[in-house]
Amino acid sequence: MSNPQNPVALITGSGRPRVGNVIARHLADRGYSIALHYNSSEEDAIKSRDEIRVIGCECEAFQADVASESEVDEMAAGVKRKFGRLDVLVTTSSIWGETTFDDVTKEQLHLNFDVNTLGTFFAARAAGRIMIEQPEGGAIVTVGDWSIDRPYLDHVAYFISKGALPTLTRLLARELGERNPKVRVNCIHPGPVMFPGDASEERKARLIEATIVKSADCPEMVAQAVEALVNNKFLTGVCLPVDGGRHMYSPGEV
Fold first, then answer.
1. Distance separating alpha carbons of residues 117 and 113, to the nearest angstrom
2. Mean pLDDT for the chain?
3. Most buried residue among 2, 102, 183, 214 by CB atoms closer than 10 A?
């Protein structure tokens, strides 16, 4: 079991070198014990686990399909067995894909909803059940998308699934806060915080230009926002854009 003095953070979707992994390393640098989550990226998760351990932080990797209620419940139980507590959950696990409006299928809709919406709910409920039993409570940060309010074309299944997260966040804040007022739930809506691996220089330039601050590819900004939401004890039910102003700006606007 871990040092009971160290807070414990579980970050879903953190095995691969994406935003969740950056959040995990950020919290590790701040003294958290880290529970990495992966589904199929075991090799990346083990590599990350070992690298985090090198800095003197307790870290373990847990496998689960977030769309499976039983697997998520077992993951949360495994975190509790390993570390003795759970103080922070961040739900970065997600899928994303492009499909035209006319071609989207029921199967694609179900898959996106299962992973992005149900996966968030299952993880938050499992973590919340642990947190409500702790005198100190805990903090949950869900991860949505800035563009649910300004959806672009050919991502119907994705936007339907992500569009449910603000309501889910407020619902979780209400339900868990009723059981323990020290359990808080907030949401982050990221913008272009990490370039796709196959992004061309032209696309990168467009993503930068689409922000007010003329910057992008900055996953550490999401990690800092997570830390702020976790540390601010008077915030719950909040949805925070972390997008350089992208949600209120289009290139060419005055």
1. 5
2. 95
3. 183
Instruction: Tell me the pLDDT band of 252, cut-offs 50, 70 and 90.
Output: low
Q: Could you tell me if 232 and 184 are in contact, meaning their C-beta atoms sit under 8 angstroms apart? A: no
pLDDT higher than 70, residue 2:
no
Q: What is the CATH number of the domain that holds 175?
A: 3.40.50.720
- How far is it, in rounded angstroms, from Cα 201 to Cα 182? 45
Sheet containing 183-190: order of strands: 59-63, 33-38, 8-12, 88-91, 138-143, 183-190, 239-242
Predicted TM-score (pTM) of this structure: 0.95
Beta strands in 114-230 (DSSP E): 138-143, 183-190
Distance, CA of 82 to CA of 79 (rounded, Å): 5
- Pairing assessment for the beta strands 59-63 and 88-91 based on DSSP bridges: unpaired
Domain contains 119? yes
Domain extent at residue 198 = 8-241
Which residues does residue 36 pair with via DSSP β-bridges, in sequence order?
A: 11, 61
- Other C-beta atoms lying within 10 Å of the C-beta of residue 134: 14
Amino acid found at 10: L
184-210 per-position pLDDT tens digit: 999 999 999 999 888 899 999 999 999
Q: Does residue 250 sit within a domain? A: no
Instruction: Please name the residues in contact with 127: beta carbons below 8 A apart, sequence gap of 6 or more.
Output: 10, 76, 86, 89, 138, 140
Tell me, what's the pLDDT at 254? 35
Nearest C-alpha neighbor of 142 from the set 77, 74, 92, 192: 92
**What tokens does 111 get?**
């898959």
For the segment 27-34, the average pLDDT, to the nearest whole number, is: 97
